[in-house]
Write a structure and sequence with these properties.
Radius of gyration: 23 Å
Shape: globular
Number of strands: 17
CATH class of the largest domain: Mainly Beta
Number of domains: 3
């Protein structure tokens, strides 16, 4: 890469980094870039989404640097590796930083939720996390009132005198339908599994949503409804934070129903380890019109792909003692529709 030493110049056109830190100069100008770090000549930054262009900035001309979400998360992970332990409070603080910016940038709402969910039950995290989770679930671009209600109820349990939580609970209870809906009359009966937890649609995929719906015809259990809308991307993605060991599991298994009139391909992904490695399964087809019972993704076979295999399906998920996230990926292309998933479990 060609390096350019530069002291001060017009910077208004030098923008467009995929990961946009912002450098503010004493002259009043600013530059969106990816800050790499200090070198003897100054501050090394990269420009553009491919990172092929770089500059060395004169440190004396810089007023301040505003780091973006990815840079802040990378720094927390670096500190965690150095400390040999998780820094839960730093993840919570990153959530606060995201929440402050959520009104201007809706993607920050998803990121705030992600950090709060990641840290919520950990030692040293203030009880206020439940109140903030309630606000995020209630007011984000894709509200999830049932999750908001659960978060407010937990805060009220911890702080019985909270007027804000009590008012929010009443507001949401009044807004929620009084009669639970039925996902599908043919849904399998059974105990609730991971479908009852907080699944979040990923903003890098297609539009849609994830929510738990009551199946009043089959034991009033919860079924996970995955809604998706077609677009210019290849898939919709839904994520559940795990943050636990699944090293004794042999497979991920669930039941799935496709109410549409066309088959839909899905796969799953696991994110594991300190480096958040991505492992993705082969796709499986969900035929329309009936429940597919026991769809199985074997964790012991070398049929998964990852960065280490150059995205060829010839490995199995590693670091299962540190399972971070589970994702369901729906390859819907331009198709709109829904899927219903039940009894999600590791076996």
């Amino acid at each position: 890469m060609k390096r350019i030493l530069f002291a001060l110049m017009s910077l208004t056109l030098l923008t467009g980094s995929a990961k946009a830190d912002t450098v503010y100069f004493k002259s009043g100008t600013s530059l969106e870039c990816k800050v790499i770090g200090e070198i003897p000549e100054g501050l090394l930054v990269e420009l553009g989404s491919d990172g092929k262009a770089s500059l060395v900035l004169d440190r004396a001309t810089i007023l301040r640097i505003e780091y973006d979400f990815d840079s802040r998360l990378d720094e927390i992970r670096r500190q965690e590796k150095e400390a040999g332990q998780k820094l839960w409070l730093e993840h919570y603080k990153l959530g606060l930083w995201c929440e402050e910016r959520a009104q201007m940038d809706q993607s920050m709402c998803d990121r705030a939720l992600d950090r709060y969910l990641y840290a919520k039950t950990r030692e040293g995290i203030p009880d206020e996390v439940w109140l903030r989770l309630g606000r995020m679930f209630e007011h984000c671009r894709e509200p999830n009132l049932r999750e908001a209600l659960a978060a407010y109820q937990e805060y009220l349990r911890l702080h019985p005198d909270s007027g804000e939580a009590a008012a929010a609970i009443k507001r949401i209870e009044d807004a929620l339908p009084q009669t639970p809906g039925t996902a599908d009359p043919g849904a399998p009966a059974g105990a609730d599994g991971m479908e009852t937890l907080s699944w979040l649609r990923q903003t890098w995929g297609h539009e849609g949503g994830a929510r738990g719906v009551r199946d009043s015809g089959n034991g009033n259990t919860v079924v996970l409804e995955l809604e998706f809308r077609g677009g210019g991307k290849d898939k919709a993605a839904y994520r559940l934070a795990l943050d636990k060991s699944i090293e004794n599991a042999k497979a991920l298994v669930f039941d799935i129903y496709n109410p549409e009139n066309k088959p839909i391909k899905i796969c799953v992904a696991l994110v594991t380890g300190d480096d958040y490695e991505w492992y993705e399964s082969h796709a499986q087809t969900v035929s329309p019109g009936k429940w597919l019972m026991g769809m199985r993704f074997d964790l012991t076979l070398n049929t998964w792909k990852s960065k280490a295999t150059n995205w060829a399906h010839r490995t199995k998920p590693g670091n299962l003692n540190r399972a971070r996230n589970l994702l369901i990926l729906v390859y819907n292309g331009k198709q709109d529709g829904k899927l219903f998933v039940d009894d999600i479990r590791f076996e």
